[in-house]
């Protein structure tokens, strides 16, 4: 479970990015975080990943207070979270296989595990045929599916997809959302930030709406309105 308990973040220049925010996310939930630019979404994700420290309040992952962890434990914790970004962030000089293998090597996985698991995650995102291609040979939607496979390969507890469809056309957007749903159905928490109203409405899952550093709505209606 993820829990934010009365969390505020005030940056050194006195910008109030989060103002007394509390919520929790249960195992297996799919949560979309919406809100206008400047609402505090990125700050919220950065605090969860311990890239920034809260000014006030605590953030827990299961029973662990993330901001009380030492450096090594923070790295271990981050490996339990898979990240997917709008701009894919694939390594251009590596093949699809190598991009995913690289993440597994960094996590200390064996060659045998890598040879076994890379084809498996590519199958999950329906991209087995592109295993030896380079990113520049893939469409935007295919690149994002590789990025999702890479985020999944170390079997994280949580996937954070930060505007994952921002660079995709409607067909590829649909595919990426379907894959995120499938991952969630297999038991992984998915946290999605998006400006795409259509996605939120079609998902019908929990929506946390933010504005000016506060949660202005948190419900399961699955509708995008603020
Ligand atoms: P969103 O992701 O919803 O656009 P952010 O979390 O990026 O929102 O920003 C929330 C507020 O915090 C904004 O007013 C922004 O200008 C401010 N902010 C974000 N990052 C920093 C920073 N590193 N230093 C100062 N202010 C920041």
TrEMBL record:
Pfam families: ABC_tran (PF00005). It is a peripheral membrane protein. GO terms for molecular function: ATP binding; ATP hydrolysis activity; transmembrane transporter activity. GO terms for biological process: cell division. GO terms for cellular component: plasma membrane. Coiled coil: none annotated. Gene3D superfamilies: P-loop containing nucleotide triphosphate hydrolases (3.40.50.300). Belongs to the ABC transporter superfamily. Part of the ABC transporter FtsEX involved in cellular division. This is Cell division ATP-binding protein FtsE. It comes from Candidatus Zambryskibacteria bacterium RIFCSPHIGHO2_02_FULL_43_37. The lineage of its organism: Bacteria, Candidatus Zambryskiibacteriota. The gene is ftsE.
């Amino acid at each position: 479970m993820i829990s934010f308990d009365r969390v505020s973040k005030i940056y050194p220049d006195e910008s109030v990015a989060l103002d007394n925010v509390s919520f929790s996310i249960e195992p297996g939930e799919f949560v979309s975080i919406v809100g206008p630019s400047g609402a505090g979404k990125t700050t919220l994700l950065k605090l969860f990943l311990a890239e920034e420290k809260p000014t006030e309040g605590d953030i827990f992952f299961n029973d662990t207070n993330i901001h009380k962890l030492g450096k090594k434990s923070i790295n271990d914790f981050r490996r339990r979270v898979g990240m997917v970004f709008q701009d894919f962030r694939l390594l251009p000089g590596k093949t699809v296989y190598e991009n995913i293998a690289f993440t597994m090597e960094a996590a200390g996985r064996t060659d045998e595990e890598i040879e076994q698991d890379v084809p498996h995650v590519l199958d999950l995102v329906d991209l087995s045929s592109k295993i030896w291609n380079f990113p520049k040979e893939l469409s935007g939607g295919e690149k994002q599916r590789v990025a999702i496979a890479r985020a999944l390969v170390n079997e994280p507890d949580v996937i954070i997809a930060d505007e994952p469809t921002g660079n995709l056309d409607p067909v590829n957007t649909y595919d990426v959302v379907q894959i995120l749903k499938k991952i969630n159905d297999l038991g992984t928490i998915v946290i999605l930030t998006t400006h795409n109203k259509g996605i939120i409405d079609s998902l019908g899952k929990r929506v946390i709406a933010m504005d000016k550093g506060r949660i202005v709505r948190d419900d399961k209606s699955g509708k995008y309105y603020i």
